[in-house]
Write a structure and sequence with these properties.
22% helix; disordered N terminus; 15 helices; eight-stranded parallel sheet; alpha+beta; nine-stranded antiparallel sheet; 754 residues
């Protein structure tokens, strides 16, 4: 049943009666149609986080690191980034795809919309190499001018709303070669791995960067190299010589890389015979000794323990060679940016994972050290089986539907942080068809704050406001998959972004310090607490192994939920220092060492209890009622997340303005799924769901069934807001000497107490 706006208004404040009416009219939980009006950014809005941002991004100078894993604005003020990936400018030329309907680009509206909801950074994941489809005669050194224009326009629009930019201008996956360019290895090869060592491609790459960064942005009058709103430049996206794709480098490129390896080995050991003696002739049958060229062993061998001393030495040499090849490319590129182009933005060298989180991830992270910032792309994603499972949802797809509240060791912000260096998650989200997005902003705000992760970029949005349910590509009848623009996630931004950016949740004390000499990296010594590698449906096999690996190892993965886990490279000897975890990790729950966060993964409940921010995210069927120091919550929903955040910066117990934010599940209208069995590799099975119908616009949001109390005697009234922060109606409250109590109104996600 879809309610009109007047009908929804009539139900506001009616609580149980409204829920009962809706429940009787449709199967399953009562829902409301998510059809917000276009935001006019009226000054009478009671919720607008634009003042958190600077008037103009970068007005005080370039963003810098603070030497302790965080960022500083140009004026020295600490800054954390609540960030998103946006494709709006890129998608404008294809806005008329049949299943998308009429579209359009309004970057100014988009920037203001994001700023109002707490965003202060966007990431532009672009491809500036030549577009051979649009320009078949392009030279290898030509830049894609349409992509550059989209970058320039977006940077200009965002800086006006105090939003900084992370720029990712190159990805090997979509890189295409023209035959006439004469690239070594031929024009049909994949570009994965080549940028690290192919000098012809590197020369072209530097040409693209020069034209992107030093030519004047016509929309600002300032080249990007001199624009402080460009906070971070990523050298490349999702590529590594330590990932499985390195084995795909074949032919002439493989030979070229092996010749480099041979030179490295000859320099290291003095001669090839000396190297073979040290290696106990390991791998000779695969070498090309008559050609004076040593073979690179498969990356799988780097993920395994060596059987004896000889093989161990060879594998260590190969690991060091691959790491230094990437490190040297990163160092030379940073020098080029700084010395030749005058770029002052911070640099992130890469953001990818490796073939072994246990043995190679620290090696990868060390290769990033020529830049100032570390990064990783890591999604909360589960199994999704279907003909287009990597990018679209269609009827008949089968999926598992995990909640991070019940598997917190899979949180994408559980990261090993290089001592003193900021780390960011540059792509992430709770990926549909997962239905637990309402927990995501709550958990990200909580645990990035605790561990000191310096920024988190939600992926992705291609509409200038909310992402309405629509086709994945505009042609296939389907539902888009890679979006955070739904009511449960994007609608949960304001309270979470405010709490995170303002520092309401304290950073914990380090719980594990892993000191590693470089020799330990080359020897691929397994770490006691690896990062969970994540599950990428586009790159990983449809196996449960990648999802289960996180719970293995000598140190419990719940350690990441206690406090920061840090790594120091270049130590004199290997040493792991760990706090006493017995006070924080129990069989069913984990408590942060600040005492502010508790996560009960047995019942699926997380709580935040700080002076200015408190909240509960829960599978409420397991635990209906929760009492924190100021906030009380009782819910009859099966799942949801409630946050109470002071809007005036005062403690919740005495604040004069408090935001209550409540998110539950949302699905497209007509969505249906049913229980199903998923078959895995090797014949194993797992229980999940099958998509019966992927639905259509609009979203339908489960009605709130939650009572909230706040121990603040100064608060007198409650006002329900629409999705633009505008007042809708007064909500009845019950007051007593300690504070007030209310039932969250139907058809709303926000209530402001005053």
């Amino acid at each position: 049943m879809s309610l009109s706006a007047p009908a929804r208004l009539a139900l506001l404040g009616c609580g149980a009666a409204a829920a009962a009416l809706l429940q009787a009219a449709e199967p399953g939980p009562a829902t409301w149609a998510f059809e917000p009006a276009r935001d006019r950014f009226e000054p009478s809005a009671l919720l607008d986080l634009r003042p958190l941002n600077e008037d103009l991004a970068g007005q005080s100078g370039f963003v810098r690191t603070d030497g302790q894993g965080g960022f500083l604005r140009g004026d020295g003020q600490p800054i954390r980034f609540w960030a998103v990936n946006t494709d709006l400018a890129r998608r404008a030329p294809v806005a008329e795809r049949p299943l998308w309907g009429p579209g359009g680009e309004d970057l100014a509206h988009h920037a203001r919309f994001l700023a109002k909801r707490g965003v202060n950074m966007v990431r532009l994941h672009r491809q500036i190499s030549p577009d051979l489809q649009a320009n078949p005669d392009a030279a290898l050194t030509d830049i894609d001018e349409a992509e550059r224009d989209a970058i320039w326009r977006t940077v200009a629009a965002m800086r006006q709303e105090g939003i900084y930019t992370t720029l990712s201008p190159y990805w090997a996956v979509p890189m295409k070669f023209a035959q006439r360019w004469g690239i070594q290895g031929g024009h049909e090869q994949s570009a994965l791995g080549l940028l690290f060592f192919d000098e012809q491609l590197q020369e072209a790459y530097r040409s693209w960067l020069r034209r992107l960064l030093t030519e004047k942005n016509p929309y600002t009058g300032v080249p990007l190299a001199q624009d402080p709103s460009l906070a971070i430049l990523q050298l490349q996206n999702e590529d590594s010589l330590l990932f499985w794709t390195v084995d795909g480098i074949r032919g002439a490129q493989r030979e070229a890389l092996e010749r480099r390896f041979t030179d490295f080995v000859r320099h290291r050991h003095g001669s090839l015979p000396a190297a073979l003696l040290a290696w106990r002739a390991h791998g000779v049958h695969r070498d090309h000794l008559l050609q004076g060229r040593l073979a690179l062993l498969s990356v799988w061998e780097l993920t395994q323990p060596a059987a004896s001393e000889g093989p161990a030495r060879r594998l260590a040499d190969q690991t060091e060679f691959l790491a230094r090849t990437m490190h040297d490319f990163n160092r030379r590129t940073v020098d080029f940016l700084r010395q030749e182009l005058g770029v002052q933005s911070l640099v992130n060298a890469g953001n990818w994972k490796t073939a072994s989180a246990e043995r190679l991830a620290d090696v990868e992270r060390w290769s990033y050290t020529p830049g100032e910032v570390d990064a990783v792309n890591h999604y909360f994603s589960d199994l999704h089986q279907g003909p287009y499972g990597g990018w679209a949802i269609v009827a008949g797809d089968r999926f598992t539907d995990e909640s991070a509240l019940r598997a917190p060791w899979r949180l994408p912000v559980n990261l090993r942080q290089t001592l003193g260096r900021p780390i960011m998650v540059t792509e992430s989200s709770w990926v549909p068809p997962n239905s637990h997005g309402a927990e995501a902003p709550f958990l990200i705000a909580a645990y990035t704050s605790l561990t000191g992760v310096a920024g988190y970029h939600w992926f992705a949005i291609g509409q200038d406001a909310w992402a309405t349910p629509r086709s994945a590509n505009g042609y296939l009848p389907s539902l888009q998959k890679w979006t955070f623009g739904s009511p449960d996630i994007l609608g949960s931004f304001p309270a979470a972004a405010l709490a995170y950016r303002r520092g309401d949740i304290r950073r914990g004390q380090p719980v594990l310090m892993d000191e590693r000499p470089l020799s330990s990296l080359w020897q691929r010594d397994p770490v006691s607490l690896p990062e969970q590698p994540g599950f990428d449906p586009n790159r990983d096999e449809a196996s449960r192994q990648a999802l289960a690996a996180a719970r293995q190892g000598p140190v419990p993965p719940e350690t990441f939920l206690v406090g920061p886990v840090q790594v120091a490279f270049g130590a004199g000897q290997a040493r792991v220092t760990m706090a006493d975890l017995s006070r924080f990790i129990g069989p069913q729950r984990v408590r942060a060492n600040t005492g502010e966060l508790v996560l009960d993964h047995h019942r699926g409940v997380a709580t935040i209890d700080t002076a200015r921010t408190q909240g509960v995210a829960a599978h409420f069927a397991q635990a209906r009622e929760h009492r924190l120091s100021v906030l009380g919550v009782r819910s009859d929903n099966d799942f949801g997340a409630l946050m109470a955040v002071s809007l005036d910066g005062q403690p919740l117990a005495s604040s004069g303005r408090v935001l209550l934010q409540y998110a539950t599940r949302s699905r497209p209208t007509g969505w249906q799924d049913r229980p199903a069995t998923l078959r895995l590799e090797g014949g194993a099975t797992v229980q999940g769901r099958e998509v019966v119908s992927f639905g259509q616009a609009p979203w339908r949001v489960v009605q709130p069934q939650v009572e909230v109390s706040l121990r603040n005697p100064g608060l007198r009234r409650a006002t329900a807001l629409d999705m633009n922060g505008m007042p809708l109606a007064e909500v009845p409250v019950q007051r007593n000497a300690d504070g007030l109590r209310l039932r969250f109104p139907a058809g709303s996600m926000y209530v402001v107490l005053r």
